[in-house]
């Protein structure tokens, strides 16, 4: 008889059960409690208590300390540290009218209901000067949540949030699917009136201090009326000497996760010593501004107050407003420290040679700065200081329209758990994203940490640049595929920020449309473009960097009559710039623009290097060349009155570097 623990199978000869099967014979032993298995039972007495055991509390890795008046440190308790943190957050949310912040408590209000009988929550109650309804309630603070926690919040509470097939979080940004530049305002006071760029061509639209305070109060009151707010404390700029501390207060998990990805993420130890932020964003984008308020032209307003070091967002949920608002801030703060802020891509070779890539949409900036043979320092925002270059951000914000694994494998593979996907369309069953679908918007985006790019250089810093590459997609077809620029020419084309778009006309004929964006990012700069150009020239001259103008547009004719320069040729050109071989080439000079063009590059047909050779109609070429030169001159008229350099000599050199008829 085969034994099996406390029971055995009897032989068929002795007893049989139903259908002739052997009966199980139980061996009787002393009475014992029968368990489902041999593991000890759980310690919980209720299902809620069991759930509370599932998550353990995070604890700091370093001793908790506080700075005394004499500069020395003393240890403080975890509870005291938490209260100090909440006191700082309450101060950020303070109403200017009531002169006090709200009562704040850490944690999710839903979780607190379940755990209130067992766990104590750190809270902070300020001294209430003026009693109001909002002063009687607690505002729950969800502080520095992890991506997993933010996923849970978004999926549970925010309609339109889903997990895609690759693990990314798909979200909707509401009615606004892009930035609202006409609704962006900057406070004009005694300081900024003289420092900032105002007037024609400037992105800075003024508002007064009082109107800003009205909008700030509206945003803060809205955030304080909510059961919970999300708070991120993060950094800008990978250069530790010039790092900026930012606090983002928002109402949506989507916004919190977006900024978690896009800003630099502090370590737990850095968060303990974070202290008072250098700049605060109040994102109340779910709530509109009052259109009857002075300076308001719609229900949307994005307001920056440089004196108060604050930004208020009302009437738009588009997350890109936060990213670019902080970029505008860096365009103001960094030059005051003699650091050049740049709207550019940046990569570095294995020998430490750094290249900067400037270019407007459609010029190939992202494609050309992403090179598997080079390290990626960043794709969009950088600083150039006495220490070298550094990325401002901690993530990438990539366009997704028509994205494919073949064309952009790095971006494709980065769309995984932790990534935010904005306004994409996906299959309702499989959750597979259709990147070609423009049903919501053409401006679909992915925001992910830069660590998701395999060849990203961490930390995102590098030595002084060796090459400065200005990209233009010239749909007129008259700019050469590559030109070596003098310092004055580099400044001229940097200030111009040229590319050409193709737009449909009423009669159906498509004509190239010249587009100029000063410093290749006019929407975000705060000072006059010539100030950034002068700083760029000074650094290039000091560190021996070379300027290049690369045309990724048309050759052999304008759009429709010519052909787009092959990407393979452009990559060969960029490779020759990186390797230094292009510096050793022989050069000739073109008419009108006076550009130095090489006579030969390995892997590139020599006949396309001079655009005139590729046009069959030479008269049409010269006519188009003169037309484009005229557009450059007309655009530059707005910058001619600004003095650059002590004796204005630099201004004259820059003007002379433009088209000559």
Structure explained in plain terms:
- It is a single chain.
- The chain is α+β, with helices and mostly antiparallel strands and 661 residues long.
- Helix 4 (147-157) packs antiparallel against helix 7 (253-262).
- The model is unreliable at 1-7, 32-37, 114-120 and 504-509 (pLDDT under 50).
Give a short synopsis of this structure.
With 661 residues, the protein is α+β, with helices and mostly antiparallel strands.
Gross geometry: globular
Number of strands: 38
Largest sheet: 10 strands, mixed
Quote the average pLDDT.
Answer: 88
Strand order of the largest sheet: 7-6-8-13-14-15-17-16-11-12
Characteristics of this structure?
661 residues, 17 helices, six-stranded mixed β-sheet, ten-stranded mixed β-sheet, Phosphoenolpyruvate carboxykinase, 38 strands, alpha+beta, disordered N terminus
Write the layout of secondary structure elements.
Layout: E1 3-4, E2 7-9, E3 24-26, H1 47-54, E4 65-67, E5 73-75, H2 78-92, E6 103-106, H3 109-115, E7 123-124, E8 138-143, H4 147-157, E9 162-163, E10 169-171, E11 184-187, H5 192-195, E12 206-207, H6 209-225, E13 228-236, E14 244-250, H7 253-262, H8 268-272, E15 279-284, E16 301-305, E17 310-314, H9 320-336, E18 340-343, E19 345-348, E20 354-358, H10 365-369, E21 375-378, E22 381-385, E23 388-391, E24 395-399, H11 409-414, E25 420-422, E26 425-426, E27 433-434, E28 445-449, E29 461-462, E30 465-472, E31 482-485, H12 487-496, E32 498-504, E33 510-516, H13 529-543, E34 546-551, E35 554-555, E36 563-564, H14 567-579, E37 587-589, E38 596-598, H15 611-614, H16 618-636, H17 649-656
Parallel strand pairs: 6-8, 8-13, 10-25, 11-12, 11-16, 14-15, 15-17, 20-30, 30-34
Antiparallel strand pairs: 1-2, 2-3, 4-5, 6-7, 9-10, 13-14, 16-17, 18-22, 19-20, 19-21, 22-23, 23-29, 24-28, 25-28, 26-27, 31-34, 32-33, 35-36, 37-38
Helix pairs in contact: 4-7, 12-13, 12-17
